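Minutes, project check-in
Item: structure for the 85-residue chain
Input as provided by the requester:
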Amino acid sequence: MSIPMYLYYNYFTRDFGGNIPEQKIRELVDRYSAINPSWESIDADYVYSGPFEQELTSLDLDRDARLRLIFKNPSVKIYKITRGI
């Protein structure tokens, strides 16, 4: 998976003056890639999937039985997390 460079733009602009060390990028991308939460383990009732979120994942949220689509327009989908399925 390729993480867009602008994902960490604010972090590096603030802390590194805009110079993004390759080692730091790799560290953050590796950490992000290792995250594997379940819908039951997060403190949320809804999942927002907009253009930015869709760039970051290849997950097909429409196929996830634990999510129910409650809103959709051409660029955004909002899902309700169903518990206990």
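Outcome recorded: DSSP finds three helices and three strands in the chain.
No further action items on this chain.
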